[in-house]
Design a protein that fits this description.
38% of the residues lie in helices and 4% in strands. Helix 1 crosses helix 2 and helix 2 crosses helix 3. The N and C termini lie far apart (29 Å).
C-alpha cells in the first residue's frame, strides 16, 4: 500500500459525526510527519463518496476555506449534517468532536 492509500484508509476510519486533524490522520497512516502529505492526498481524493475527507480539519478545528470538493463552506455543511457543532469563531468544537481528546 502506498502513502496515499494508507492516508485514505485512515480517513475512512474517522467515525460519522467526528473529526480528526491532519497530524492525527498522518499518525493513523503510519507517520506523524506526513501532515502536509495528508493535505495533498485529500486534495487529490479519488473517491470523495467513500473517503470522507471533509472530516479532516486543522489542529484548531478550522475547516478549509475553499474545500476541494465543492467550494467555500461545503466542508462545514457536510460536518453539520453529521451533527458536528462549531464555536463562535467557526471552528469545530474539538473537545467534543475530535476522535481523541486534545
Amino acid at each position: 500500500m502506498n502513502t496515499y492509500e494508507k492516508i485514505y484508509e485512515a480517513v475512512k476510519n474517522i467515525p460519522y459525526g467526528r473529526v480528526a486533524t491532519y497530524k492525527q490522520v498522518a499518525a493513523m497512516a503510519g507517520n506523524p510527519s506526513w501532515a502536509r502529505t495528508v493535505g495533498n492526498a485529500l486534495h487529490k481524493n479519488p473517491d470523495p463518496d467513500n473517503i470522507p475527507c471533509y472530516r479532516v480539519v486543522n489542529h484548531q478545528g478550522r475547516p478549509a476555506p475553499a474545500f476541494a470538493f465543492g467550494g467555500e463552506n461545503v466542508q462545514r455543511r457536510l460536518l453539520e449534517s453529521e451533527g458536528v457543532e462549531f464555536d463562535e469563531r467557526g471552528n469545530v468544537i474539538m473537545s467534543r468532536y475530535c476522535i481523541t481528546a486534545r
